[in-house]
């Protein structure tokens, strides 16, 4: 999928889909040829016919754990309890339960064994009880709600009956005062969805706020998630009420509950399937291009040097290795008539000899995949939009055919890239963001998009490095930096701008001039060293549904800043590394949020105490803001350019000791499906240390358990402990270890220790020599780095502020001029007009000129202090801009409590001269007013 640069007409797209590519199938998928692909279902359209509901409950019966409700309008509903925390709700307007278009595609696992349920008639409602839930069935009219087992703590509640027309069904749910929502698949934009309306539909536009791989799934901070069991497109409005619509005359959904977002993801993927376990080479950088440009059928540039026939790709592989540049796989054909030069096997073998695997890109189908995988040895598939672009079940089945083509013709694991995924795609494929551009703006929304995909269980989500159109050396380098901390990433060669600046040729990282070449190498090498850490994190995803690339809310669900889009520009790579990408042409990164705990700058060793905001972080082009959580235990490989290049004869554990912490390393053969039968090993490492100050740091390394082909019988270990002072003693199992006087002596020794105070504020290195069983390393008499508090928020001087606009202000009956909202006196107020006729309706707003440009990071609001209560701001939005006409998205949204106390809210730090505060609601709901005694800001001057 790409080549949108040609902007093909629908007819041309169908022609492209029907092309017979050299070596690829003339026929498409088993069910339908590509040229006969069904049209994508339209995005939600205008409803047809009158709106109807089920009416009142007239009957309630039970059969096992299936409860059937009959309604006065002829509709029936079923509640099927699958587990104490999982149930299905199916509402059929015509009273039959035969229309089940999704079958087991989206919910392949629903039998979890016996589950104890009871029911009772509570008068106004029937109550179905599991060990975890109370499901209420209101009688007049039929509505559903779910409470915790106590029957008093709400999880979700319908505000009105589910309704349907001839072609659309909508559920209406109450929205909690601070309830937040996540999910909907690979949405191209921010991941906190409260107040947003999200299309659950395929459009193949691939721009901000589109959905590259929609999923009919969302979850809530109330502790539940829901997957609509459908192929129909829809739209979710996370407003008040929340409206959840799909284009079909039926309602069918699976509900999952838990005590955390992680447990909800676990339950959701128990039913819809756990994320697949990619081969290790799939974690390495991939490269897609056409290396058969001489093919007359090819629709691209026929004259590209070194791209004339498929074996030319081996020259590029040689270039990568000559540049000492890690990368792991090629897609040497790109569909659209490119095809590949036969015989394919010789090229695949030549790439394998250089440490590269081969995948194939298909725009027409998979008719030759048995030979491509079983004989030639290809190991990956990229499904193109020209084939599967109609989406929904057609795309889902195409991906499944690709999986079968790999796994039925080899012992390899599935490795498929696709757009237009759906719920359940996490078990089959990497999803990616489509045809995007090498711009700072595209990079900006890619960070929350790829991070947010994990909130739908999509562990492998990606966007082409620097897009496929345009681009520059600087955008490429910055984009590669942060994507190196995600599980899967790929670069698309040959489709960007031609030589926009010196040293830029095409989009392989080794074809750039300095300094870009060295920076690209630095981050690709770091990813290879982090392979055991990132691989373990993806194993956690495979077992629990919790992704490797994590939105801050997954790790800090109770932190109000982490719950929303204030942190959408950063993410956790696994449980220990905080990544804050630089997505503009700058060398200073503002607005890095560090949650509670200690955080160490990966590059300098400087340690901070959260929670709080870090502004002014110095991030020249070679520096990605990267922080390590206190207590982190991060396993690392020796440096290598591809999996298997070197034996892992020494495993390094990079440790930031802080209290008690642990890590459970996962290893397998990295290639085959033997792990599914238990062929893998684990090793647990436990660290005990002071929480601050001085003391002993002890690392207890467990013996590896389990076995797999290639597992080392023994190996060496190195520990890099980030401590502030040299230890008094170092022991292994109580025996002293020799201290060495220099780094050179340490490097030459088989065992020993060396402390370097100049290395990132202090690093203690310990070598153990070869070990096969459990052992304990202890460093006595050392001290931990002191953690400095984050810089305090600085008030912005209000003496230069002036009023730009207030939509309403009372000046007749009382002195309510809007300037009193920032005059420094809590005894004066701004109040919207009330004495001259009908007051203006909400929302109200005030716009303020700050007199100079500031990087603003916090807002204070003091409600009126004169004893009055009306006008207290409830729901609000805050904007900061350099323009009073183009405000951009809000830097904060929320709801203030209905009290007289001073309020503060953290802002997503943004630089600008103008402030806009919008009052969306009145806190007490007493009237259409707004008032404020004082508005304050924190931040720092910005050039």
UniProtKB/TrEMBL annotation:
It holds the Pfam family Gal_mutarotas_2. InterPro entries: DUF5110, FA58C, Gal_mutarotase_sf_dom, Galactose-bd-like_sf, GH, Glyco_hydro_31_C, Glyco_hydro_31_N_dom, Glyco_hydro_31_TIM. Residues 1-27 form the signal peptide. Residues 786-940 form the F5/8 type C domain. CDD domains: GH31_N (cd14752). The keyword Magnesium does not apply. The keyword Signal applies. It comes from the Bacteria. Keywords: Glycosidase, Hydrolase, Signal. Belongs to the glycosyl hydrolase 31 family. This is Discoidin domain-containing protein. The lineage of its organism: Bacteria, Bacillati, Actinomycetota, Actinomycetes, Kitasatosporales.
């Amino acid at each position: 999928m790409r080549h949108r640069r040609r902007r093909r007409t629908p007819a041309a797209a169908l022609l492209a889909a029907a092309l017979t590519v050299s070596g690829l199938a003339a026929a498409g998928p088993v069910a339908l040829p590509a040229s006969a692909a069904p049209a994508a279902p339209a995005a939600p359209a205008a409803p047809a016919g009158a709106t109807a509901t089920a009416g009142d409950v007239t009957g309630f019966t039970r059969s096992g754990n299936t409860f059937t409700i009959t309604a006065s309008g002829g509709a029936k509903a079923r509640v099927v309890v699958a587990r104490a925390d999982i149930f299905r709700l199916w509402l059929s307007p015509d009273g039959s339960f035969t229309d089940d278009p999704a079958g087991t595609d989206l919910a392949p696992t629903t039998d979890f064994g016996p589950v104890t349920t009871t029911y009772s008639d509570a008068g106004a409602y029937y109550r179905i009880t599991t060990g975890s839930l109370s499901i209420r069935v209101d009688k007049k009219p039929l509505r559903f709600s779910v409470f915790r087992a106590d029957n008093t703590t709400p999880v979700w509640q319908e505000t009105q009956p589910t309704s349907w027309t001839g072609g659309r069904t909508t559920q209406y749910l109450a929205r909690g005062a601070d309830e937040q929502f996540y999910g909907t698949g690979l949405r191209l934009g921010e991941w906190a969805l409260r107040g947003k309306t999200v299309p659950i539909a395929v459009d193949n536009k691939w721009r901000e706020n589109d959905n590259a791989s929609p999923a009919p799934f969302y979850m809530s901070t109330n502790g539940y998630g829901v997957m609509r069991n459908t192929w129909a497109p829809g739209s979710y409005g996370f407003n008040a009420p929340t409206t959840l619509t799909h284009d079909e005359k039926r309602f069918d959904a699976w509900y999952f509950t838990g005590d955390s977002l992680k447990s909800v993801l676990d339950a959701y993927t128990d039913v819809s399937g756990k994320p697949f376990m990619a081969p290790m080479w799939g974690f390495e950088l991939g490269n897609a291009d056409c290396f058969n440009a001489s093919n007359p059928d090819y629709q691209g540039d026929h004259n590209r040097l070194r791209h004339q026939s498929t074996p030319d790709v081996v020259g590029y592989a040689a270039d990568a290795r000559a540049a000492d540049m890690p990368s792991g796989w090629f897609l040497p054909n790109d569909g659209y008539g490119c095809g590949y030069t036969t015989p394919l096997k010789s090229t695949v073998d030549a790439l394998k000899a250089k440490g590269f695997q081969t995948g194939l890109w298909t725009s027409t189908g998979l008719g030759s995949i048995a030979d491509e995988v079983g004989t030639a040895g290809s190991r990956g598939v990229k499904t193109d939009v020209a084939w599967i672009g109609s989406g929904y079940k057609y795309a889902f089945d195409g991906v499944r055919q690709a999986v079968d083509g790999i796994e039925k013709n080899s012992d390899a694991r599935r490795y498929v890239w696709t757009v237009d995924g759906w719920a359940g795609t996490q078990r089959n494929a990497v999803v990616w963001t489509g045809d995007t551009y090498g711009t700072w703006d595209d990079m900006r929304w890619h960070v929350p998009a790829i991070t947010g995909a994990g909130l739908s269980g999509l562990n492998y989500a990606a966007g082409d490095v620097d897009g496929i159109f345009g681009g520059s050396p600087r955008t490429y380098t910055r984009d590669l930096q942060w994507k190196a901390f995600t599980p899967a990433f790929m670069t698309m060669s040959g489709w960007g701008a031609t030589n926009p600046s010196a040293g830029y040729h095409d989009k392989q990282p080794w074809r750039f001039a300095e300094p870009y070449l060295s920076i690209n190498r630095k981050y690709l090498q770091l990813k290879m060293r982090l392979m055991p850490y990132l691989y373990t994190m993806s194993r956690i995803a495979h077992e629990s549904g919790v992704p490797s690339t994590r939105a801050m809310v997954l790790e800090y669900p109770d932190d109000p800043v982490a719950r929303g889009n204030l942190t959408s520009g950063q993410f956790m790579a696994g449980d220990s590394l905080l990544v804050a990408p630089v997505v503009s042409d700058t060398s200073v990164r503002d607005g890095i949020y560090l949650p509670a705990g200690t955080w160490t700058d990966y590059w300098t060793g400087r340690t901070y105490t959260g929670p709080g905001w870090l502004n002014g972080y110095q991030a020249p082009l070679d520096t990605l803001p990267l922080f390590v959580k206190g207590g982190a235990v991060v396993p690392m490989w020796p440096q290598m350019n591809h999996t298997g290049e070197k034996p892992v004869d020494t495993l390094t554990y990079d440790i930031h000791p802080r209290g008690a912490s642990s890590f459970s390393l996962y290893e397998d053969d990295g290639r085959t499906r033997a792990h599914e039968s238990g062929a893998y090993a684990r090793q647990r490492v436990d660290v005990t240390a002071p929480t601050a100050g001085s003391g002993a740091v002890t690392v207890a390394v467990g013996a590896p358990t389990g076995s797999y082909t290639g597992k080392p019988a023994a190996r060496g270990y190195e520990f890099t402990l980030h401590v502030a002072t040299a230890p008094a003693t170092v022991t292994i199992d109580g025996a002293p270890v020799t201290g060495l006087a220099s780094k050179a002596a340490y490097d030459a020794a088989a065992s020993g220790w060396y402390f370097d105070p100049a290395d990132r504020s202090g690093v203690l290195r310990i070598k153990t020599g070869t070990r096969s069983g459990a052992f304990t390393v202890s460093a006595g008499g050392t001290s931990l780095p002191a953690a400095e508090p984050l810089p305090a928020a600085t008030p912005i001087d209000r003496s230069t502020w002036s009023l730009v606009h207030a939509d309403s202000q009372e000046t007749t009956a009382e002195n309510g001029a809007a300037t009193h909202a920032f005059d420094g006196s809590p005894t004066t107020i701004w109040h919207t007009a009330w004495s001259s006729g009908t007051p203006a309706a909400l929302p109200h707003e005030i716009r303020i000129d700050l007199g100079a440009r500031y990087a603003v990071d916090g807002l204070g609001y003091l409600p009126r202090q004169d004893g009055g209560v009306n006008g207290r701001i409830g729901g609000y939005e805050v904007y900061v801009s350099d323009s009073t006409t183009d405000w951009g998205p809000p830097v904060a949204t929320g709801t203030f409590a209905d009290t007289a106390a001073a309020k503060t809210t953290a802002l997503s730090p943004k630089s600008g001269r103008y402030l806009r505060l919008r009052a969306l609601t009145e806190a007490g709901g007493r009237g259409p007013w707004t008032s404020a005694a004082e508005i304050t800001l924190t931040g720092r001057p910005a050039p």
